[in-house]
Amino acid sequence: MFELTPIIYVVDDDASVCKSLKRLITSMDFHVETFISAQEFLRFDRSDRPCCLILDIRMPGISGLALQEELTVANCTIPIIFITGHGDISMSVRAMKKGAVDFLTKPYDDQDLLDAIHKAIEQDISTRQEQSEISEIQKRVDSLTSRECEVFALVVTGMLNKQIAYTFKISEKTVKVHRARAMQKMHAKSLAHLVRMADKVGIEK
Amino acid sequence: MFELTPIIYVVDDDASVCKSLKRLITSMDFHVETFISAQEFLRFDRSDRPCCLILDIRMPGISGLALQEELTVANCTIPIIFITGHGDISMSVRAMKKGAVDFLTKPYDDQDLLDAIHKAIEQDISTRQEQSEISEIQKRVDSLTSRECEVFALVVTGMLNKQIAYTFKISEKTVKVHRARAMQKMHAKSLAHLVRMADKVGIEK
DNA sequence: CAAAAGATTGGACTAAAGTCTTATCTTTGT
DNA sequence: ACAAAGATAAGACTTTAGTCCAATCTTTTG
Prior knowledge:
Chain A is an alpha/beta fold and 205 residues long. Chain A is built from nine helices and five strands; from the N terminus they run βαβαβαβαβααααα.
């Protein structure tokens, strides 16, 4: 599913830095796409494949930290590796608290960067895997009618059909119908499977 | 269960820093215990209540980062807030990667420290809650006989009694006996509950 | 308005799981 | 050696859940 070559996005206002990073990273089995501003990166239509972001902190326009913040609120989970020439501790701590994979200072060791890239890509792959599983399950939940969903929600709490029936003031017969439909639509192989899917997406209502 | 007043451990080789931190933190509703070396802290018999650790990076003997490492391998999850006068970015990043709650540089803002303490205590409370739940469940798993545990493991995969019976080459009757015992010993109110407990502790064998 | 979708329920079973009781046969610790 | 613990299993039911088939009744929507 994600067998594509990972792509590394580099955002640095210094074109020569972009160029040398591109050379270094391409020598591994990665694709590289460089941008000289956060704005340019945001405009870019990122394809759906494993990736990570190498980001300069200090840039005219949107700074690295600001871009990180922007991506966070946009629900984008792309792993970020910061690189900076003139950072301070407070910056690095802020970046790490917000989930950055690493924060390197120039001059950095090439191996440290490559290690960080590998870690970031691994993280991205597993995050994507997780997200795609969740969205698949959510799609199934969305296909349930409201009643089916209500019954589903109580079934996974461990309630008996008769208890669910009493709760909704309907017959046990009807509960069985909704329950069977829910099992079908959720593609649940067993009750255990249904429970795990419910916990994964967090059934509310 | 954890309604006790949280205790803040302060480890700093500068006794005057310990003293002023103690004054500041005591003014909140926290107890404080100070140590002038990592060794002294390690010898201290910590009581079982919400706590966190405020740690100086640079200390003679065991450094702050070394103590963090030591606690990690000892499986101690006490949240750590680092304070340093002469730290660098690399140190702060290493500390944050290993899960530090915050990394403050002197002179720091008192409010920042208090915020970090609150966050650390919250984290400790929820970690303890989680750990005590898990160990309670693990205790129940440990009370299962080996056969009960094997049957339990397959039950929570969603297998039918007859399938489990075939797997172990025993009768469905016997599976029912082990299954019923497992439900009892695990205090499972339902299959859904059993599945969740299994996932929480991660049934291996 | 008419068709489609959804909610409801009954009948008639089948299958799966749980509840008792009773009873071997081993293994294990003292 | 002997009691205790654990694994095995059968008989006899009861309770739950699942399966088809059929049939209202309401709401939504083209």
